[in-house]
Every structure is written in C-alpha cells, then in structure tokens.
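Teaching assistant's notes for section 4

Start the section by putting this record on the projector. Ask students to predict, before seeing the second block, whether MBD domain-containing protein will look compact or extended. Collect guesses on the board.
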Amino acid sequence: MEIWSGHKPSIRHCRTFGSLAYVYVPIVNRNKLQPKAKIGILVGYAVNRRGYRVWLPKERKVVESIHVKIDETKNGVKTLFGKVKHYDYAIYQLDQNLNNDSDCRAKDEKSSSPKPLSSLDISTWIRLEKPRKKSKRIDVYYYPPSKERLRSINDVKIYCERNKLEFDPNQFNFKPTTTNTRLEEKTECDNETSSDSVDEASLDCK
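Reveal the predicted structure now:
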C-alpha cells in the first residue's frame, strides 16, 4: 500500500492479539447496577467497519465494536482462566464457575422467597355499625385483635399485607344492615315542636 499510494499507512489501531479487552455497554442496554463494560479477549479486527472483534467468554460469542478499551499489558487467557495448558480445560473451568454462581443465586432466591401467608380468622374481629348524628348514613368499622379501626376494604387489605395475612374481600361487608333511626326520631320531635308552636300562635290570635 505504501508503494501504491506513496504514504506510509497508520498502524495506531493495531493491538496485541489475545490482550485483555473491555467492551463498552451502552446506557440503553443496562441499568445503574450493571457494569459499564464486558470483559473479553481481543481476537481480531472488525470486517466491514472500524472496530475490534472481542470474544466474550461468559456469553460464548464474538462481538464487534469500536468502543473497546484494550490492556496490552495483560494476556486475556491468563487473566480470565489462569495458567492452563489446554484451552478446552479453561472453558470447562469457566463453565463450572458460571454454574456455581447460578447455583448460589438460586439458593439465595430460594432463601429470600416470601413466606406463606397466615390464615385470617374473622371470628376474632369485631364489626361495628355506627350511625351518624346529622345524616342518615351509617358507618361500618372492623376491629382486628390489635384494636385498630379499619374504615374500608382498602384499609383491611393494607392491614393484611402488613401482618402477612390472607386477604379475602368476601369475608368483609361494609354495607350497613340497619337504618339510622336516630335522625328519624329527631325529625319527628322537631315536627311535633313546630306543630305545638303553630297551635299556640293560632290561640293567641283568637
């Protein structure tokens, strides 16, 4: 190429084969807790574009990218697999490590799995209907053994989730079963008082 063009070609992009390489992972392909780069081994250069070809042992595939940081002071095989004579044995060791990691994660997930919920004994709860003084409405409350007043089905659900209890909305009825007679009696008394005052006024006029 130098003879044909008359210019000395640049070799700044050339790197040592087998060096340790870090492939950048775009932000859209990771979250805040995931690493910013994947570690691999430099195996060549990209064919149809500028960049490098890096083998990722954990994913067992070769990727092409221009966003690669190469550490030529470290041998990728020795760094990732240690000093081994046979490359197949190195792959076997890597698979064993990955399997051990997956087993540990499975054990952690199993140990951190949620405990079964306790059954809810509705017989220990108290249901109370309380009529209002200035309206015909009747409020319904449920009192669990902790004496906490629950005003709605949503309050009951939150209480069950907080105390690890099974929640069944069919066990609770927030519709009043009685009518508010207090307001009706008060209305009748007011009517009688008003009628008596009208009669007295008519007698005075006579």
